[in-house]
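Subject: Sanity check before I submit

Could someone independently write out the structure tokens for this chain? I want to compare against mine line by line before I put it in a report. The sequence has 273 residues.
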Amino acid sequence: MKISLVSAFAIVCVTAWVLTRAVEAPRHTDGRTPVLVELFTSEGCSSCPPADALLSKLDRQPAGGAELVVLSEHVDYWNHLGWRDPYSSHFYSERQSAYADRLGVSGIYTPQMVVDGTIEFVGSSARSANEAFVKASSAPKIPVHLSSITLEQANILRAHVEIEALTDSFGSREAEVYVAVALNHAESQVSRGENDGRTLAHTAVVRNFLRIGTLRLGLGFAQYVQVKLEPGADPPQSAADCVSPGATSGQSYGSGYAISQSEIGEYEMRMRA
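---
Independent answer below. Compare away.
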């Protein structure tokens, strides 16, 4: 198993199941709208590598007027078929099941993409993905800002999260705020199961979520947070913040920029798409 680089995300959710991203620094935008792209995948699934490759491509390439925020969430229900996915968690299986209930899907499957918490399709379909991005780009977003990013004690990422007020237009009285940590890149040499003998590569592999507070109607949110990086992970090379007051519709909201960190305390602006 090979891992490299870590990204930290601040996330706001009306429920634990809806996210999107807005990112750091200057409080202006170049016009691109953040769109959350979640891929439910597994190293035990032979149909998943093409979807993993598509997610990696989406992370590197612009998609019209959208700034894509990609997350790879490894489910655990394939683990009994010969290969235990080292990045899997039952949390993501439950998250996917909640989406199935909300979106009226008869059952869970891999690979599955969910865009902005409202649109689902087979995760390897580039055509379906592009159609979903066009639709999601028109959704309203709440600005979120991440600043004062530092690395302490080699494995503690500290940052200031600031979120603008939740308004009546989003149809919810409050939203939970989370921080997520994801591996920018991960690889595994699979020795059992449907992908036996293959080297699999992944992008933006979510490793954990941490609830840090609540965004309430009519009020903003501002707080310093600390995120512990998992043992063996390289220091963070990028940081981003996310927002998704999804209300009852499950829709996601957010806007902003991404920061690339060349070294602690010295940042370079970039867009991630």
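---
OP: Matches mine. For the report I'm noting this point. Residues 2-270 form one domain.
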